[in-house]
Amino acid sequence: MLTLSMLLAACGDDGEANGESDSSGDGSDNGEESTEEPETEGPELGQKELTEPYVAWARETVSTEMLKQLLEKAGYTVEKKQVEAGAMFSSMADGSADFQTSTWLPATHKPYWDKYGDKLVKVNQVLDEAPLALTVPSYMDDVNSMKDLKGNEELGESVGWEITGIDPGAGIMQNTQDAFKEYGLENWELLESSEAAMITELKSAIENKEPIIVPLWKPHWAFGVMDLKMLDDSKKVYGGKGDQIYTVARKGLKEDAPRAYKVMEQYDESYDMINKLMPKVHQEDKPVEDVVKNYLDNNQDKVDKWLDGIPTE
């Protein structure tokens, strides 16, 4: 009995020395619940498949892919759909699409917002100043404002009284039609084409130092490689200093896909970022998927900000 008592005492001493006794007070092995806060799981995934309509404009091509890849990191499957501007808004309003990051307000997309805005939600402003205007090469010394177009026979005849436009559903095309009325430009005609075709015509004119007038906006890579100037718009038909650009979602997406909505709330842009990425896609002809992936791989601080509190898969 004496020997047994000594053995039990020795075991007790070893347990205390190893920190296994209840008297250690850490509660690690005594059945007590830990007081540490559980690790947060972030917003729920919800609806896993999302549809993102977009128009293949310069910035939008990059921004659409950027948000797509961020959402895929958060666990979603995102299908991009290239559409016309009207369909971009109507598809979200009827619920067949979920979000886009291409809404220019208050001026450019006002007609679409007036028509569909009650079924849509502004999630986040991604750029705070995006000016639009009729634009000419800087060597056109005598053309500096919209007023310079009125009754300008020499200019009108040199370009056939034509302004080389983009796709007809674009907001800037409607702005230009409104500008014709505001500035009394009855002799002028706005040609419909596409952004790519317009840029081709602009490049050709500059190479030959010929006059040309086009609708353009910032951010756009053309301003980084061509010497251009926007015409002064005293009547602010094009929105004055510029629109703001928003990520917009259909109503109900916040409840259907909380994690995706949170990513959209945190995603923003800078002129520096967009101006660096657009030329890689539109001048160097690199796949936008590769350009965006490379940016995300090499800018972890940005990714951490955009995905703060978001579980990644």
TrEMBL record:
Which cellular compartments is it found in? Answer: Cell membrane
Provide the residue span(s) of the region labelled Disordered: 9-50
| ABC-type glycine betaine transport system substrate-binding domain boundaries | 54-297
Which superkingdom? Answer: Bacteria
Q: What is its main location?
A: membrane
The UniProt record lists the keyword Cell membrane = yes
Acyltransferase found in the keyword field: no
Keywords (alphabetical) are:
Cell membrane, Membrane, Transport
Where is this chain compositionally biased, Acidic residues type?
29-42
* PANTHER family, per the entry: GLYCINE BETAINE/PROLINE BETAINE TRANSPORT SYSTEM PERMEASE PROTEIN PROW, GLYCINE BETAINE_PROLINE BETAINE TRANSPORT SYSTEM PERMEASE PROTEIN PROW
**Name under which the protein is recorded:** Glycine betaine ABC transporter substrate-binding protein
Q: What organism does the record attribute this protein to?
A: Lentibacillus halophilus
